[in-house]
Design goal:
The chain contains seven helices and seven strands; from the N terminus they run αααβββαβαβαβαβ. By secondary structure, the protein is an alpha/beta fold. It folds into two domains: 47 residues, Helicase, Ruva Protein, domain 3 (Orthogonal Bundle), CATH 1.10.8.420; 122 residues, 3-Layer(aba) Sandwich (Dna Topoisomerase Vi A Subunit, Chain: A, domain 2), CATH 3.40.1360.10. It binds zinc ion. Zinc ion binds next to loops.
């Protein structure tokens, strides 16, 4: 194999969850497809025009995202989620009307993800600054990593004197919030318990 092919496969292997076989399949697709230029342009434009919202951490075109700028949303509760997909699933359920904070993942020491790799510091700063927030809902996933993250967060948020709750599960253990249906999510939010 030549160096161009090797470079391409190695670059694609950096994608989360992509192993060697999948990397080769994607490389082959990109080489054969007529869409490749369009895909690269979309990536380039998104990288250039999107930035993390200074409040919640979601990628947005503006410094403050649409949701954080919406005065109609309830300000008393802040829902902490791992990834964008979890946030969208919670939104779809319609059961939560407050604000969000995106961590960008869950603690996973074996994969090199420690507290510094997540948006934990911005969360603590935000809680210290926004005195209107009374409740922090830890909506990390019911996985080993998600539970460890919730435990870690509850310990460092506790001294700030906020009410801390965890989603009721309801949600099958190991299932990402992202893939749960709306009713299950609604019940998990309504039945949340204090930690
Ligand atoms: Zn935002």
């Amino acid at each position: 194999m030549n160096k161009y092919w090797e470079n391409l496969v190695q670059a694609i292997r950096k994608f989360p969850g992509v192993g060697p076989k999948m990397a080769e399949r994607i490389a082959l697709f990109l080489l054969k497809s007529d869409e490749t230029t369009g895909i690269l342009k979309a990536v380039e434009e998104a990288k250039k025009n999107l930035q993390r919202c200074v409040h919640c951490g979601v990628f947005a075109e503006t410094e403050t995202c649409r949701r954080c700028g919406d005065n109609g949303r309830e300000k008393k509760s802040l829902c902490v989620v791992e990834e964008m997909g979890d946030l969208e699933a919670l939104e779809r359920s319609g059961a939560f009307k407050g604000h969000y904070h995106l961590l960008g993942g869950a603690l996973s020491p074996l994969d090199g993800v420690g507290p510094r790799e997540l948006r934990i510091e911005p969360l603590i700063k935000r809680l210290a600054k926004e005195s209107g927030i009374e409740e922090v809902i830890l909506a990390t996933n019911p996985t080993v990593e998600g539970e460890a993250t919730a435990l870690y967060l509850s310990q460092i948020i506790q001294p700030l004197g906020k009410k801390i709750t965890r989603l009721a599960y309801g949600l099958p253990s190991g299932l990402a919030i992202e893939y749960a249906d709306e009713l299950t999510i609604s019940r998990a939010i309504e039945g949340r318990t204090e930690v």
